[in-house]
Amino acid sequence: MDMHGTQVRTVLFGHAYGITIARLFSCVGIFSKLLPLAEKHKIRVLLLNRRDYPGSQPYSEEELALLRPVEGDGGEVQTLDILWAFTRDRAVELYTWLATSVTEGKIQPFDTATRTGGAVLAGWSLGSVWMLCLLAHGDLACNIKGVNLRQTIRRVVFYDPPYQVLGYHAQSSNPLLDTMLTPDQLTNVFAQWVSGYYDHGTVPEDIEYERPLKEPSPTLLRLTPQERDAAFYDKPGRPGGSDYMLFGNGFRYGLFERLHDAVFYPAHDMWREMELRYVWCDQSISDVLWGMWRLREEIDEAKKTRKRMRPVTILRLRQANHFVGVSPPD
How many angstroms separate the CA atoms of 125 and 174, rounded? Predict the structure, then answer.
């Protein structure tokens, strides 16, 4: 509830690659400018740093081993299996955190009569993988600490995810896939590329891959030194880091394709009708645009063939880049 005793909706954000969403227990972080808008809309925003980021528990060596390829005969199949185990563990962590928040009264169940309470879970960019984990392993969520999370979670949001984590394949100019860059070069090149504004056309053939607009300039280049220090934490994103291995090996060994099928065509009933909202920014990087176009095509094909697919709502943010949360409009 808020300070007036009114039940509010809770929005939980998970963050992107190499970006910390909040620094320890302060409000300094990449989405901190969203917080003043929350009370006006009777929304409570929780900014959750993922494992391996400041304020969260680092992964153990045993956990990191699940992200590394298995060598030898049958290695590709075994690699996919251990990557899948990694996603299941992350789903359990998220479910347990949510159930604990409900039992402690920090998150109220959704009241269908008043349309208050409940939680919306959102993953930004690579953070969408954690939303994929939650939906793909819905069989685990029926009874966590005596809580049925289906009565709490109102919807799940994929916020500007790249096509790779959705299990699609396409052309890409993503520096993370450039093995010729040194770690320091990768950090700088990625920051410019990922936070630029791009002028895309109205069809997939007119996607702009490499040339951002001169104005506005890339968001991360306009931050003050204090803001950059609060936003950047590149250890998980450097070669050998947890995000680096998850993104690269998840794409190479088919993990994201497996998550895609489990999420969009669920076999279990727990989350089958849970609405998924896909929010994309129309001046974001090409990887996001490709994902949006491929998802639209897949939804259209499912309608034509009457293939049962999870309900998906696609929302467009106009004149917004991948980092619109740094300077959100009212």
Answer: 13
Half-sphere exposure (Cβ direction) of 320: Cα atoms closer than 13 Å: 19
- Radius of gyration of the chain measured on its C-alpha atoms: 19
Bridge pairing between strands 276-281 and 153-159: parallel
**Which range has the top average pLDDT, 23-27, 170-174, 250-254?**
250-254
Given a cut of 70, whether residue 16 has pLDDT beyond it is no
Torsion of CA 243, 247, 252, 257, to 10 degrees: 130
Cβ–Cβ under 8 Å, residues 140 and 146:
no
What sign has the CA pseudo-torsion 25, 31, 32, 38? negative
- Cβ atoms 259, 87 nearer than 8 A: yes
Residues in the chain: 330
Q: Vertex 274, ends 267 and 67: CA angle to 5°?
A: 60
